Amino acid sequence: MKRSVRLTESDLHRIVRRSVSMVLRENVEYEQLYEKIQDVTNDINNFCGFSKMKDSISDEYTQQLMDRLSDLSNQLSETAHELEEHMAWD
What distance in Å separates the CA atoms of residue 68 and residue 62, rounded to the nearest whole number? Predict the structure, then answer.
């Protein structure tokens, strides 16, 4: 049995307005998170780079940890960027 739902034009406008508002709000929230991720990953990479330039790293293990931290930071930044692009296509 099929059921029909009757909508007025104003009902339809209200539904569309709410839907668009929800999508925009989700996108804005991710944009803010994306910016924070980029800020943090830039800070990490600057810290690692300056530590290498100043020769403040005294042992090989610390150097390996700094390299790993920098690599993970780059991966996080790239993943966040890919997600942003994917969300823009949806």
Answer: 10
